[in-house]
Amino acid sequence: MTGPLDRTAGAMADDDTILIGRVARAHGIKGQVIVNSDTDFPDQRFREGAELLLVRSGEPPTRRRIATVRFHQGRPVVGFAGIESMSDAEQLAGVELRIPVSELGPLPERTFHHHELIGCEVRDTADALIGQVRAIEGPMERGRLVVDSERGEVQIPLADDICVSIDPAARRIVVNPPEGLIELNLRVRPQ
């Protein structure tokens, strides 16, 4: 399978960090927060003892250790060391949670971080240019490339039988789409 893709990489900052989630809101009275996860590997990214960078626009990042974590309805509920009250937790609403690229670690074979695919050239098996990857959407089991083409945006499923070659180092993805797939998934730019 071409996935899973680690959505960890959706947005990379100039400082070589990767967005893995955002604090949604405080939860309970003991300083915990609910996180909107931006990774397909929340169990790996949100675990006790892990250190995350907390980033708020216009402020320097702060490093915090995860003291407690549990999952509720698929979302991490995180307690950070030093955040002890609901009042402290409320201050974190909207904060981005990031990790340095150097801490991502390897993924299994044929698995990619989003930032590795964004910017890749997409060509079909006849070497015709389709466009360039602008984003990755969807969960890992239903992920799709969002490709900017000359005619508009094209969405291409990330499936082994369609994405036949992915080479992030060469910045190239070769696809073998079923007949009509490109046209079906084309969102034409307004004139």
Write the layout of secondary structure elements.
Layout: E1 5-6, E2 17-27, E3 32-37, H1 42-45, E4 51-55, E5 62-72, E6 75-80, H2 86-90, E7 96-100, E8 112-113, H3 114-117, E9 121-124, E10 129-137, E11 144-148, E12 152-157, E13 163-167, E14 172-175, H4 181-184, E15 186-188
Parallel strand pairs: 1-8, 9-14
Antiparallel strand pairs: 2-3, 2-7, 3-6, 4-5, 4-7, 5-6, 9-10, 10-11, 11-12, 12-15, 13-14
Give your account of this protein's structure:
This protein is mainly beta and 191 residues long. The strands form three sheets. Strands 13-14-9-10-11-12-15 form a seven-stranded mixed sheet. Strand 10 and strand 11 form a beta hairpin. The two termini are 37 Å apart.
Residue fraction in strands = 35-45%
Outline? elongated
Spans where pLDDT lies below 50 across 5 or more residues: 1-14
The averaged pLDDT comes out at 86
The top level CATH class name of the largest domain: Mainly Beta
Under CATH, the topology of the largest domain is which? Elongation Factor Tu (Ef-tu), domain 3
Order of helices and strands, N to C? EEEHEEEHEEHEEEEEEHE
The total beta strand count reads 15
Given the structure, what is the number of helices?
Answer: 4
* Percent in helix: under 10%
Major beta sheet, specifics?
A: 7 strands, mixed
Known CATH architecture of the largest domain: Beta Barrel
